[in-house]
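Tokens for chain A. Residues wanted.
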């Protein structure tokens, strides 16, 4: 269940459109939204005052654009480093979901260009919804969940059924990619017999959600992105386990930082919004 959403709004990209699409879903009607804009330090007091005023105007414009009930939306204007402030505010409001725009930069390129979304991606353990600048945001009807046996994949499934249970014409696309098979793109004749997908099928049936199963093979990242494009997915969901031990939460997750994780690959290459569920590994 999503009750508290943090929208990190830079004034660019499609993150506001994504939030509007999400809030149009019946199960999301009660969620509260916090819109955050961070003003970076300026050399002079006059420049800082101008940036603060500009930021306040951006927040006001965002709230008007979202058309949300005033009792369900708040704004926060912060000064500092956007990378740190997004993580800090997410913790302060105990956000169930963080929505961010993303340029979709690849691996170390994002680090070298000081990408805010890349930093938050590798530093935060909260569910995150990334919306790349070059994609088209659609109303959410077709949700694809990449399944495996991880707890984070199961959490993705729970969230997907929560979103779709009251969506008229909604469809849940359950996908499992077996990386151990040599041939890429080979689809199981009866994917519902895939033991990884069986619990997901049971969940879809429980909530009366229309579903389709795809069980295939190959490199998971490439196959997931290919299938999402072929099936015109509106929202792609997958698990992103946090492999840092509890004692190392202040350290980066190197798989994410260096672009070596499945979730990082999909975040960069998928042609639709990507929601990453988190669990501590």
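Reply:
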């Amino acid at each position: 269940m999503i009750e508290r959403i943090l929208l990190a709004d830079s004034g660019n990209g499609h993150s506001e459109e994504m939030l509007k699409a999400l809030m149009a879903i019946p199960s999301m009607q009660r969620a509260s939204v916090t819109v955050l804009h961070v003003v970076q330090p300026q050399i002079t007091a006059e420049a800082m005052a101008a940036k603060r005023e500009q930021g306040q105007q951006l927040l006001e414009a965002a709230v008007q654009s979202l058309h949300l009930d005033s009792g369900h939306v708040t704004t926060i204007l912060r000064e500092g480093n956007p990378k740190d402030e997004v993580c800090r505010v997410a913790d302060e409001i105990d956000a169930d979901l963080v929505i961010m725009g993303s340029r979709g930069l690849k691996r170390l390129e994002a680090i070298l260009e000081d990408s805010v979304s890349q930093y938050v991606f590798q530093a935060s353990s909260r569910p995150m919804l990334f919306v790349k600048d070059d994609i088209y945001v659609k109303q959410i009807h077709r949700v694809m969940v990449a399944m495996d046996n991880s707890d984070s994949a199961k959490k993705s499934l729970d969230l997907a059924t929560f979103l779709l249970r009251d969506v008229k014409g909604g469809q849940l696309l359950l996908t499992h990619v077996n990386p151990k098979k040599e041939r890429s793109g080979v689809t199981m004749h009866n994917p519902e017999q895939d033991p990884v997908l069986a619990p997901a099928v049971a969940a879809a049936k429980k909530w009366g959600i229309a579903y389709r199963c795809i069980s295939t093979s190959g490199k998971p990242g490439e196959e997931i992105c290919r299938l999402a494009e072929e099936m015109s997915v509106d929202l792609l969901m997958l698990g992103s386990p946090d492999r840092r031990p509890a004692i190392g939460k202040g350290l980066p997750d190197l798989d994410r930082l260096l672009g070596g994780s499945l979730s990082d690959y999909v975040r960069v290459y998928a042609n639709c919004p990507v929601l990453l569920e988190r669990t501590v590994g």
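The beta strands are 4-8, 32-39, 73-79, 97-102, 128-132, 142-146, 171-178, 210-217, 235-239, 274-277. The first helix runs from residue 15 to 23.
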